[in-house]
Amino acid sequence: MILYTPDGALAAFLEENKALLRYLFIASEVELGGTPPEGVAVESGLPVALCVEKAKGLKCQRCWNYSEAVGKTSAHPTLCERCVAAVS
């Protein structure tokens, strides 16, 4: 998911809390952007627009989130960084 907002204060708030956004939106990954590109529908009156895309990485066998960290830990090659910490 990509959140776009041209509002500077809101963009700063989202950036400060970026690590929490994927849990808030129940998404594998949340990226932040400024002005939405052509083709992204923008609802008038809302301070953000969003674009949903497939997340990068592989699917974690435990939590089913997609993460680029899956496969980086030799002891748990099918788990993401969060699940490695949980099972260790």
Any overview of this molecule?
The strands form two sheets. The chain has a three-stranded mixed β-sheet with strand order 2-1-3, covered by helices on one side. A two-stranded antiparallel sheet has the order 4-5. It folds into two domains: 55 residues, no CATH class; 33 residues, no CATH class. Strand 4 and strand 5 form a beta hairpin. With 88 residues, the protein is α+β, with helices and mostly antiparallel strands. The longest helix is centred in the first third of the chain and has 9 residues. It contains three helices and five strands, in the order E-H-H-E-E-E-E-H.
What's the helix-strand series? EHHEEEEH
- Gross morphology: elongated
- List low-pLDDT spans: none
Radius of gyration: 15 Å
Give the mean pLDDT: 90
Question: Topology, please?
Answer:
Layout: E1 2-4, H1 8-16, H2 18-24, E2 31-33, E3 49-51, E4 58-59, E5 66-67, H3 81-87
Parallel strand pairs: 1-2
Antiparallel strand pairs: 1-3, 4-5
Short descriptors:
88 residues, alpha+beta, 2 domains, three-stranded mixed sheet, 3 helices
Condensed summary:
This protein is of the alpha+beta class. It has helices at residues 8-16, 18-24, 81-87; strands spanning 2-4, 31-33, 49-51, 58-59, 66-67.
